[in-house]
Amino acid sequence: MIRSFGFLLSGNACAAAILLLRTVVVSRLISLEDFGIGTSLVLALAMIEMLTALGFQQQIVNAPKGDDADFHSALHGVALIRGMIGAVALFLLAPLLAHAFGVEQLTWAFQLISVVPLLQGGMHLDVYRQTRHHKHRAAIWIALLPPLGSLAALLPLSRMFDDFRIMLFAVLVHMALGTLMSHAVAKRPYRLRFDRTVMVQSMRFGWPLMASGAVMFLVFNGERAIVGRLLGLEALALFSMAVSLTLTPSLVLMRSTMSLFLPRLSASTARQEFRAQAITTIQSHIVLAAGMVMAVNLLGGSFVHHVLGDKYRAVLPLLTLLTAVQALRVVKGGCAIVALGEGYRKTELLTDLLRITFLPLAAWSVMQGASLPHVVHIAGLGEAAGLMIALLWMHRVQRVPLRSLALPLICMVAVLAWAVFTQ
Predict the structure, then answer these.
(1) In 3-state terms, what secondary structure has residue 161?
(2) Per-residue pLDDT at 72
(3) Of 152, 155, 182, 150, which is closest to residue 169 (Cα–Cα)?
(4) In terms of DSSP H, where are the helices of 359-399?
(5) Average of pLDDT values for 93-107?
(6) According to DSSP H, which parts of 65-164 are helical?
(7) Which of 2, 83, 134, 315 is the 20 to 30 Å CA partner of 224?
(8) DSSP class per residue in 287-314
(9) Torsion, CA 38, CA 44, CA 45, CA 48, rounded to 10
C-alpha cells in the first residue's frame, strides 16, 4: 500500500508542480490586473464544473457493475450530456459573470471558455475502471501530460499575447489534452450509448455530489469571489496566488488519498476490517496535513521572495494561515472518504454547508474594511467546525472509534499553532 501511495503521490505532486510552475510563469508574463481577469475566468469554469459534478470515479469504483462495458458506454452518454448542459449554461451566463467582475467588455472570453465542459464531456472513463483495480498508471499520465503540454504552450502564447489571453488559452490547451490523453491510456474502446435507466441511476447517485459541488465551489472559491467582487481584480490576483500556493498541495494529497483509500474501504467486508482501514485513512490524512503545513511554513517565504518577486510580496501574510485552513480540510477530506467507503454521499455536503455559513460573515467583514488575513481567519473557523462534525459523524454513525485519533489530532493542532505563531 505504501508503494502504491508513493507512486500516486509522486505523480500527482509532479502534476501539481507543473501547474504551479505554469501559474508562476503566467504571473510573471502579465500584470496583476490581467492575472485577476484570468482568475475570474477560471472561477467561472470551476463554478460550472462543480455544479454539474456527477462523481463518475465514485460511480465506477463503488458500483457492483463498475467493470461492465455497457455500463461504461452508458456513463459516456451521461458525461456527454453533462458537458453539453454545462457548456450552454456557461455561455448563457457569460454576460452576467463578466458584469459581476466589472469586465463587461470581455464577455467573449467567458463565452469562449464554455467549450471546456464540451471537451470534458468527451473523456474516456476507463481510467476509473483501472483505478478500481488499483492500477494508477493511466491516472498519472492524465494528471501529468496535459499540464505539461499547457506549460509548453506558454512560449508561443507569450509571443502572440501579453495579457490574460495567455492564461485563457493555456487552460483550453490543458483541457483538450486531458480529453485526448483519457482516450490514449484507455484499455477499452470508447463506446457511447444513451440509456435512460443508467441516466436516472447516475443522477440519483450524483445529485448529492452535484449539491456538494455547488457547496464546494463556495468552499474553494467563495472568498475569492468576495474579494474579486468587493476589492477588485488586483486584490483577487494576490489572494488567488496565495490560495493557489496552499490549495495545490492539499488537492494533490486529497486526489492521491481518494484513489488509494476509497477502493480499499469499499472492498472491506468485515466490520473490524473497515474500522481498521478507516483509522488508517484518517491517521494518514493527519500526518500528511501536518507535513504540508510545516513545508509551506518553512519554504513559502523563500518561494515568494525568489520566484514570484516583489509584485506578489503581499501574499506572505496569507500563506501560513491559508495552509492551516487547507490542513483542516485535508483531514476532513479523509472523513469524507471513509463515509464514501460505506456509501454515505451526503456527509461531505453537510460539513461543507456548515463551512459556507461563514461566508456572509467574511463578506460583511470585507465591506467593513477587514483585511485579507481576517477573511482567512473566518475561513479557518468554518473548516474547524466542519471537521468536528465529520469526526462526530464517523464515530456515531459509522461506529469508528476516535481514541486512536486523539494523539495524532493533538499533534496536528500543535503544528498548526506553531506555524501560525511563528510566521
Answers:
(1) coil
(2) 77
(3) 150
(4) 359-367, 372-396
(5) 89
(6) 69-100, 107-112, 115-121, 126-132, 137-152, 154-160
(7) 83
(8) HHHHHHHHHHHHHHHHHIIIII-GGGGG
(9) 180
pLDDT of residue 2: 53
Query: Which residue's entry shows cell 455497457?
Result: 70
> What is the model's pLDDT at position 1?
53
Predicted confidence (pLDDT) per residue in 136-177, tens digit: 677 788 888 899 999 999 999 999 998 999 999 999 999 999
C-alpha cell at 48: 460550472
Is residue 99's pLDDT more than 80? Answer: yes
Give pLDDT, residue 95: 93
Q: Residue 283's closest CA among 113, 159, 401, 134?
A: 401
Provide the grid cell at 1: 500500500
CA 328 to CA 2: how far, in whole Å? Answer: 23
Place of cell 502579465: 30
Report CA-CA distances (Å) from 70 to 42, 60, 62, 76, 131: 34, 12, 16, 10, 18
Contact 386, 332 (CB under 8 A): yes
Kindly report each contact of residues 67-75 with a partner whose C-beta sits within 8 Å and lies 24 or more positions away, as own/partner: 67/129, 67/132, 69/188, 69/191, 70/193, 70/195, 71/198, 72/125, 72/126, 72/129, 72/188, 72/191, 73/191, 73/192, 73/193, 73/195, 74/193, 74/194, 74/195, 74/198, 74/199, 75/125, 75/198, 75/202
Fill in the amino acid letter for 117. P
Question: Which grid coordinates belong to 208?
Answer: 448529492
How many other CB atoms are there within 10 angstroms of residue 369's CB atom? 7
Higher pLDDT, 72 or 104: 104
Q: How many Cα neighbours within 13 Å face the side chain of 222?
A: 23
